[in-house]
Amino acid sequence: MNMYSALRSFIDQWANFQTRSRRSEFWWVQFAYIMVTAVAISLDYSVLGLSAEDGLTPFILLVEVVTLIPMAALMARRLHDVGLTGWAQLPLYLTYISYIPGYDDFIVSGLAKSGAELVLAVLYWAYFVWILYNLVKDGDRWANRYGANPKYKRG
């Protein structure tokens, strides 16, 4: 699958959480997402004079809001390709909690004192490596409970 067909499939299935997606579709879309994010960062900096230190900037916020559901759907389909449930991606979205006002005060006053913050960080990174492994490996060769393998599908 080339980049054009991957992006076409991504757009056509922007809210499809049911079927399977190939590795090539997933990684071409990730590449495009990085490029769009780079443009958003450049616009935030050059047009608005904002940087990462300013927090969630307008153009980055726009990219995040527009792509949140389609990217979640794509990752769910990719996880389906390796036989996992799409819900397995849910812990990855915990990083968005840091944007909630007052969250930093909670972490500094509560978790950091107990040492739980370190334990949670180690667990999160171990989970991230496991998810990354599953996103990189080849999908189930035969049909699984999420459908036929899109790599070998004819038609």
Automatic annotation (TrEMBL):
Tree of life domain: Bacteria
Segments crossing the lipid bilayer: 26-43, 55-75, 82-99, 119-136
One Pfam family cited in the UniProt record for this chain: DUF805
Xref: InterPro entries: DUF805
GO CC annotation terms, alphabetical: plasma membrane
Keyword Transmembrane helix in record: yes
Keywords assigned by UniProt, alphabetized: Membrane, Transmembrane, Transmembrane helix
The keyword Transport appears for this protein: no
Name the record gives this protein: Uncharacterized membrane protein YhaH (DUF805 family)
Organism of origin: Litorimonas taeanensis
